[in-house]
Design a protein that fits this description.
With 483 residues, this protein is of the alpha+beta class. The chain is built from 14 helices and 17 strands. The strands form 4 sheets. The chain has a 5-stranded antiparallel sheet with strand order 2-1-5-4-3, sandwiched between helices. A 5-stranded antiparallel sheet has the order 7-6-10-9-8. Helix 10 packs antiparallel against helix 11, helix 11 packs antiparallel against helix 12 and helix 12 packs parallel to helix 13. The chain is elongated, with a radius of gyration of 34 Å.
Length: 483
């Protein structure tokens, strides 16, 4: 739609474009209550009318089976649209035409913004939908006419209208209540009656003030949405939720005006009891998972402290070295659990975490030498299981680089990562003495090879670059970054 406005709507300002986007973002309620196809038109520089948006009703039969966006209006429809674009125009008189196998009633509504017509809206209804209207809710037709008049006057949509994509936003099919200017219930759909019953309203609601009925069912609740009084009286374009011991209902108010005078409101309602219950269960599960990760991290840190204590009490250098390596590996896993304890998802920002882990691994492995570290590239978001494996592998490679490649000398360890969707390449380089002639058969090397092949489904190789030192390359397949 924005591209079509840019191409054909040269006379439309940014403010006009925003107003049209607001209209399209919330015009489904008009399509449903009028059981009509809605098409938004703007003129081009050749005097033709171009369709820039289209929606179909969810409560009746559609007119257009094919997509009409980007098409120009027919001569018959163009005459109707030309009348809508007149400076003092009002919604045109509905016209009946034959569409091949059914009859259509159509009229054009001028779309005003800042006191001028910026577009036209055609409201096209299949005759069969009107027959359904007569059997269901006749007040729908009157409400639809009011909304069309408000569009032509520029009072709908309003700037304070909540976004129609808000989670749990009620729709016409969920339930609708027709209020008068005093907040009394004039009509309501069966689904709306069920919503009120779910809240605990047992009295007859027709003719009653809805705010009084709602007050009775929520008077014992300690928390009440502060926008609720305005919404249930139909005085503002707001959204609120009503919670009672028996259920939760989302309410959305659409005030109705006629010739600038407030006539009442259309109140949309939706039973969101199960939706909110599932959300609360997920929140509880998320909190439980974070608490588990926090406790695991604490337990692993306790293990690290015990290993350090044992290192200080041991007289054997071989035992001290082995326990020190075990402490470093446990600390790497604890670092991942610490990151997971601070998020609601089972993924971690590995770039942020690995920078700290890189410095920690080098510092724990270093003795008297000074070792600088550098991280280049990006890992992206990584799932918890893969993050645990990568943390141990990288920590082990960095420690080996410091302990063997940079033994008794200062140096630098560089970690580089490159990711393309599910393909991950990691390099660990140092400027040390390079590989020794003896085969790589230590415990750390065995752990790294096993983890890379079994858990990361990848490969690992060591090499000695021409500039000296050692370079380790890991290629792995991981889940795609969903960020």
């Amino acid at each position: 739609m924005r591209e079509l406005i840019r191409r054909y709507g040269q006379d439309l300002s940014d403010s006009d474009s925003d107003h049209l986007h607001m209209l399209v973002g919330d015009w489904q309620v008009l399509a449903d209550i009028g059981s009509a196809d809605l098409i938004l038109w703007i003129p081009d520089d050749q005097g033709r009318y171009v369709a820039i948006a289209h929606t179909r009703p969810g409560s009746g039969f559609t007119i257009h089976l094919d997509d009409v966006v980007g098409l120009t209006a027919s001569p018959t429809r163009s005459r109707m649209l030309k009348s809508a674009f007149a400076p003092d125009s009002q919604p045109t008189t509905p016209e009946v035409r034959w569409a091949g196998s059914y009859s259509v009633i159509a009229n054009a509504v001028p779309v005003r913004h800042d006191s001028r017509v910026i577009a036209a809206l055609t409201v096209e209804v299949n005759i069969q939908s009107l027959r359904v209207f007569e059997q269901q809710e006749q007040w729908f037709h009157k409400t639809a006419n009011m909304l069309c008049e408000m569009i032509s006057q520029g009072s709908f949509p309003a700037a304070s209208l909540p976004a129609a994509t808000t989670h749990g936003m009620p729709r016409l099919i969920d339930g609708a209540i027709n209020l008068d200017a005093e907040g009394r219930v004039l009509d309501l759909t069966p689904n709306a009656r069920s919503c009120l019953r779910r809240l605990g309203v047992r009295e007859e609601v027709i003719g009653a003030v809805l705010a009084e009925l709602i007050t009775e069912v929520v008077q014992d609740q300690c928390q009440v949405d502060e926008t609720l009084p305005v919404v249930v009286m139909g005085k503002a374009y707001w959204l609120a939720e009503v919670e009672s011991p028996s259920g939760i209902v989302s309410l959305r108010s659409l005030p109705l005006e006629q010739s600038g005078e407030r006539m009442g409101a259309l109140l949309l309602c939706r039973d969101v009891t199960e939706v909110r219950r599932r959300e609360r269960e997920l929140m509880s599960k998320d909190a439980t998972i974070r608490e588990i990760h926090h406790r695991v991290k604490n337990n692993l840190q306790t293990v690290c402290a015990l290993l350090r204590l044992q290192v200080r009490r041991s007289d054997s250098q071989e035992v001290k070295t082995a326990l020190g390596e075990a402490e470093r590996r446990v600390a790497s896993i604890a670092r991942v659990h610490e990151e997971l304890s601070q998020t609601v998802s089972e993924t971690v920002d590995f770039d942020e975490m690995i920078s700290r882990l890189l410095r920690m691994s080098a510092a724990m492995a270093a003795t008297d030498q000074e070792v600088d570290t550098e991280f280049v590239g990006s890992f992206g978001m990584i799932d918890a299981e893969t993050a645990l494996v990568l943390a141990v592998v990288i920590s082990e490679l960095v420690a080996n680089a410091v302990e063997h490649g940079l033994a008794n000398r200062d140096g630098k360890v560089v970690l580089e990562a490159k990711r393309e969707r599910s393909e991950l390449d990691v390099w660990v380089r140092d400027n040390g003495s390079g590989l020794e002639d003896k085969p790589l058969s230590g415990l750390g090397t065995h752990i790294v090879r096993t983890l890379v092949r079994a858990n990361l489904k990848g490969s690992i190789d060591w090499s000695c670059p021409e500039e000296g030192g050692t370079k380790v390359h890991i290629h792995a397949r991981i889940e795609e970054d969903v960020r």
